[in-house]
Amino acid sequence: MAVNRYDDTRAWYAISTYSGHEDKVMDSIKQRLGSPEFEGKIFDCLVPKEKRIEIKNGKRKVVDKKIFQGYVLVEMKLSDETWYIIRNTPGVTGFVGTDTRPTPVSEKEIAKIKKRMGVEDPKFSVNYEIGEVVSIVDGPFKGFDGSISEIDSVKGKLKVMVSMFGRETPVELDALQVKQI
């Protein structure tokens, strides 16, 4: 019987994957979770994602974005066997850690990640000030510049004064439709 060089306690580990293969790696590991050979060894697997708001073709969409591109989290008891199983999963490039020893992710960090993933309402980040001049990058007023006259940080909306036909016209825009000059 092989000597176990690892700590045999249940913990979360970060594994690196080829970029874009995170979901495939997670699905591959999760498919094997139900089998008797993994019982009590590998418990869970997840790709940390959060909801974000994007604007495409003038329409607002809520999308899931990966928090850590190229990484998957696995909850398991680290042993030679589980290390080998995870390391040889297609798309996995290795464990995160020092030298050849994987480092567990702290419970505090896992709690932060899960909390961030569990947020249902996507957050708006409005980093603008009233009077600031911005350039409109999306929608029917694309290409125009204007100054911000109002900010609604709850809804992520801005009122921008745009100069059209020689006069200032207020235009309500999503914060994602403008960029700082």
Descriptive account of the structure:
The radius of gyration is 23 Å and the shape is elongated. It is α+β, with helices and mostly antiparallel strands. The longest helix has 12 residues, at 22-33. The protein contains three helices and 14 strands. The chain is 18% helix and 43% strand. It has helices at residues 22-33, 80-87, 107-118, and strands spanning 10-17, 42-46, 49-56, 59-66, 71-77, 92-95, 97-98, 101-102, 104-105, 133-136, 145-152, 157-164, 167-174, 178-180. Strand 3 (49-56) and strand 4 (59-66) form a beta hairpin.
Give the termini distance in whole angstroms. Answer: 66 Å
**Approximately what portion of the residues adopt beta-strand conformation?**
35-45%
Secondary-structure element series: EHEEEEHEEEEHEEEEE
Low-pLDDT residue intervals, each spanning 5 or more residues: none
Q: How many β strands by DSSP?
A: 14
Q: Let me know the average pLDDT.
A: 85
User: Quick one: overall form?
Assistant: elongated
Helix content: 10-25%
How would you briefly describe this protein structure?
The chain is an alpha+beta fold and 181 residues long.
Topology of this protein?
Blueprint: E1 10-17, H1 22-33, E2 42-46, E3 49-56, E4 59-66, E5 71-77, H2 80-87, E6 92-95, E7 97-98, E8 101-102, E9 104-105, H3 107-118, E10 133-136, E11 145-152, E12 157-164, E13 167-174, E14 178-180
Antiparallel strand pairs: 1-5, 1-6, 1-9, 2-5, 3-4, 7-8, 10-11, 10-14, 11-12, 12-13
Give keywords.
elongated, 181 residues, 3 helices, five-stranded antiparallel β-sheet, alpha+beta
